[in-house]
Amino acid sequence: MSERAETDARGIPIADASESTGGRRANWAQLRAALAADRAHWERRGQGPAALRRGYHAVWLYRLSRYSHERGWRMAAWLLWLVNGWWTGADIPPSSRIAGGLFLPYPHGAVIAGAVGRDAAFGVQASIGGLLKEPDQDIGGGPGLPVVGDAVVLEAGAIVLGAVHIGDRARLGPRTIILKDVQAGEAVMPQPWRALPGRGGAA
Which residue stretches belong to region Disordered (predicted)? Predict the structure, then answer.
């Protein structure tokens, strides 16, 4: 199964070049449509002008690197990835497949490696990626990488690791670590903290 067919099968929509005339023009149109969806998501969340936010710069640089990657300009794609990491602190490799509407207000320390659906939101240092000791199982996000559905919210510090699928509209609470599939619409919250007696009190 091809990369595009595998991704479409997992619900990560990527428009095919045949939808409009000319492969290059179609790819550029897809890039502009994805950026328009990104800006619209920022506006819906009331974060002010997206162009002035470093998180939007991270998304914009990722889109350019992904475009270069799809065109076969691999050196340019990875150079843009380096620039993105230097300028914004985000690690979004061009091999990741992210649909339009990505909201990433605080990019520093965020890692997004895998496939992400439409209108996803990543909080402070929320990340997705692979496990060092996991087999190279590919469920659509890449070898050992997760697939995140549409309208998924990852709160601050939430981490998704391995070849797992996060269903549409799922919400991952702060500092949760996800190692298995999450169903659509499900909310996953961390264990509540508790105070330990005798700690931090006056002597």
Answer: 1-23
